[in-house]
Design a protein that fits this description.
The chain is mainly alpha-helical. It has one domain: MetI-like fold, CATH 1.10.3720.10. It has 14 helices and 6 strands. It has helices at 27-36, 38-55, 57-64, 107-141, 147-165, 168-178, 185-196, 199-212, 216-223, 228-236, 241-264, 276-283, 291-319, 327-346, and strands spanning 8-12, 19-21, 76-77, 83-84, 354-356, 367-369. Strands 1-2 form a two-stranded antiparallel ribbon. Strands 3-4 form a two-stranded antiparallel ribbon. Strands 5-6 form a two-stranded antiparallel sheet. Strand 3 and strand 4 (83-84) form a beta hairpin. Helix 5 (147-165) runs antiparallel to helix 8. It is flat, with a radius of gyration of 30 Å. It starts with 7 loop residues before the first strand and ends in a 9-residue tail after the last strand. It is a multi-pass membrane protein. One of its GO terms (cellular component) is plasma membrane. Its main location: membrane.
């Protein structure tokens, strides 16, 4: 039996990304391949900026000199129903993106604080979905082939199908409507989205686990008496990194949109806490008078969704060893091969069985042939 390492096993077919095989070099090779892609670099930079804005929201608001909950009545036109004074929603040196109609709250401060809520809810919900999906998928995929294993696999698969068939958005609305308002809404949103959105990840993990458990290195681990938990942790999970990471980059913006939709309906984050969906909800009646108030959160949400979608596609290519090499990387490889070939051509040919004597002062080195024992005259 030939043992195969978990990092270089044969790749399995996957919708999201190949499982069971990663490029040579492990995470460093994946990172280099991801950075070689233009879309990957752009997505990483955009995601880094989004995280930086969310983490430094208080400092950014302080840099502008505003806060998200202060009212500025003097900046509103009472004759027009409370629309901001000036062009583009009152944009100026003190209010970089203008102010909200009817309240006069600074739009830039509420936007950066809303990034913390939207991104935090999306990340928390995605982590919960990954945890539940991995547990259910691994349990179903590693179920023994005996009668009890088949029953366990069938039960978990039917539960996954049932969770996948549920109308997630409507169930989220129903659950948010019955929970008391005193419960923290961001935490409640994360729990609801996690409990209703784990089924797709569980299905992917189950399918990949059933493929990976047939590999030779898993069979070798079984023969050595390794426990199911050790096999799942040491042999199966490394092969699931590619599809799970790719799907995570895809499902995270979906959770951001779900949070924005629920907050838009008034069931998510409630005032005075800022959220992009809540900003869109209050801006619907002002899109003709103050289009800036609608465009700022809408375009921000659109850019975030496109960024994570591009990151998911770049991760799929980076984890796939059979994907075409980026043009920049291919050119570097061609130049390296050409340099090696030129160096080999310039090196002088060395006769077989020849040794080079040390040169004396002022004299070049001379190659002297030393005959072997088989070539000596009898």
């Amino acid at each position: 039996m030939t043992l195969t390492d978990t990092r270089t096993g044969t790749p399995a077919e996957s919708v999201a990304a190949p499982a069971g095989q990663r490029p040579a070099g492990g995470p460093a090779a994946v990172w280099a391949r991801l950075w070689a892609l233009r879309s990957g670099r752009a997505a990483l930079v955009a995601v880094g900026l989004l995280v930086l804005v969310a983490l430094t929201a208080p400092w950014l608001a302080a840099l502008e000199g505003q806060d998200p909950n202060s009212f500025h009545d003097t900046l509103l036109n009472s004759a027009s129903g409370g629309s901001p004074n000036g062009a583009f929603g009152g944009i100026g040196a003190q209010h970089w993106l203008g102010v909200e109609p009817t309240t006069g709250r600074d739009l830039f401060a509420r936007l950066v604080y809303g990034a913390r809520v939207s991104l935090g809810v999306a990340v928390g919900a995605t982590l919960g979905q990954l945890l539940l999906g991995l547990l259910v998928g691994l349990a179903a995929g590693l179920a023994n082939r005996g009668r009890g294993g088949r029953w366990a696999d069938a039960l978990l698969s039917r539960v996954t199908d049932l969770a996948l068939a549920l109308p997630t958005f409507f169930f989220s609305i129903a659950l948010l409507a019955v929970v008391p308002p005193s419960f923290p809404r961001p935490l409640l949103l994360g729990l609801i989205l996690s409990g209703l959105g784990w089924a797709p990840i569980a299905r992917i993990v189950r399918a990949e686990t059933r493929v990976l458990r047939e590999r030779e290195y898993v069979a070798a681990a079984v023969l050595t008496g390794a426990s199911t938990w050790r096999i799942a942790r040491r042999e199966i999970l490394p092969g699931l990194v590619a599809p799970v990471a790719t799907y995570t980059a895809i499902v995270l913006p979906q959770n951001m949109v779900a949070e924005a939709g629920l907050s838009f309906l008034g069931l998510g984050v409630r005032p005075p806490t800022s959220s992009w969906g809540q900003m869109l909800s209050t801006a619907t009646t002002w899109f003709q008078v103050d289009p800036t108030y609608v465009l700022v959160p809408a375009l921000t949400l659109l850019v975030c969704v496109l960024t994570f979608a591009g990151l998911g596609e770049a991760l799929r290519v980076a984890f796939d060893p059979k994907a075409p090499v980026p043009t920049r990387t291919r050119r570097i490889r061609i130049r390296r091969k050409a340099a090696k070939a030129a160096g080999a051509a310039q090196a002088p040919a060395r006769p077989v069985g020849a040794t080079t004597t040390a040169p004396e002062a002022g004299h070049p080195a001379v190659a002297t042939a030393v005959p072997s024992q088989k070539g000596e005259a009898r």
